[in-house]
Amino acid sequence: MAIFDVSLTLKKGMLSFPGDPAFSIERVFSREQGEEFNLSLLSLATHTGTHVDAPAHYIDGGRTIDSMALKMMIGPGVVLDMRGIGVIDRRVLEESALTDETRVFFKTDNSLKLREPAFNDNYTYITDNGAELLIERGVKLVGIDYMSVDRSDDECAPAHRILLSSGAFIVEGLDLFDAPVGPCRIYCLPLKIESGDGAPARVLIETAQFSCA
After folding, report:
1. Is the pLDDT score of 211 beyond 60?
2. Nearby residues of 202 by Cβ (< 8 Å), 6 or more positions away
3. 3-state DSSP call for residue 173?
4. pTM greater than 0.90 (yes/no)
5. Strands, DSSP E only, in 72-196?
6. Which CATH architecture is the domain 2-7+46-207 placed in?
7. Residue tagged active-site, from 47, 51, 57, 160
8. What's the rounded Cα separation, in Å, for the pair 179 and 18?
9. What are the domain boundaries of the chain?
10. For 100-146, where are the E strands, in sequence order?
11. Of 33, 152, 192, 204, which residue has the fewest beta carbons closer than 10 angstroms?
12. Residue 51 among the catalytic residues
């Protein structure tokens, strides 16, 4: 078995969606300053780094992070190769290797953009009819390797609304650069935040054996 950590490291200056609060960490107690232990204060948004969007992110009365069914977050899934594709729409998905998976992660050229110092609004995203097809196929967990499943300048956020209104959860900010494509087992555990609209998560994928991406 091979295990891949596909989570972004939380650190100062890390990439975030424009307008979101920046991540910060401050040492409160320090061994170097003669105190007995190290302890730090974190400041971050619920959608910082690799994170899960709960339906409550966009849907009034939608399920929150603390009320989610954990079985949706752990189990068989697939990493689909979408490199070289700018828009994930219905046609692209119909021509892909997508079958009847419950959990789907999209590996795109975005994983390269994650390594750029500034936010790049020219990233691969999911269209409304692409989101509709995912729901038709029974997908309950959708992941992408940038900070949003929607186009950055689309304030209506159709993919978010379609996926979340169906009860599905979204994982954004995945780092799939080194992750192999194909079947895998997904482990996605967001922080348990009371009434949370989202939460940072540690996400792992496990494959039967290592294969080149």
Report:
1. no
2. 5, 7, 50, 189
3. coil
4. yes
5. 74-81, 87-88, 103-107, 125-126, 141-144, 169-172, 182-190
6. 3-Layer(bba) Sandwich (3.50)
7. 57
8. 26
9. 2-7+46-207
10. 103-107, 125-126, 141-144
11. 33
12. no
- Encoded tokens for 107: 């590996």
Q: Are 170 and 160 spatial neighbours (Cβ–Cβ below 8 Å)?
A: yes
Q: Supply angle C-alpha 208, 200, 98, rounded to 5.
A: 40
Task: State how far the Cα of 82 lies from the Cα of 121, in Å rounded to an integer.
Answer: 17
Rounded Cα gap, residues 212 and 142, in angstroms: 23
Per residue in 96-126, pLDDT tens? 999 888 999 999 999 999 999 999 999 999 9
Q: Is 182 left (phi over 0), alpha (psi -120 to 50) or beta?
A: left
> Cα–Cα distances in Å, from 53 out to 25, 66, 137, 195, 213?
23, 12, 20, 12, 27
> Residue 133 is encoded by which pair of tokens?
């097809």
Q: Distance between CA atoms of 163 and 141, rounded to whole angstroms? A: 9
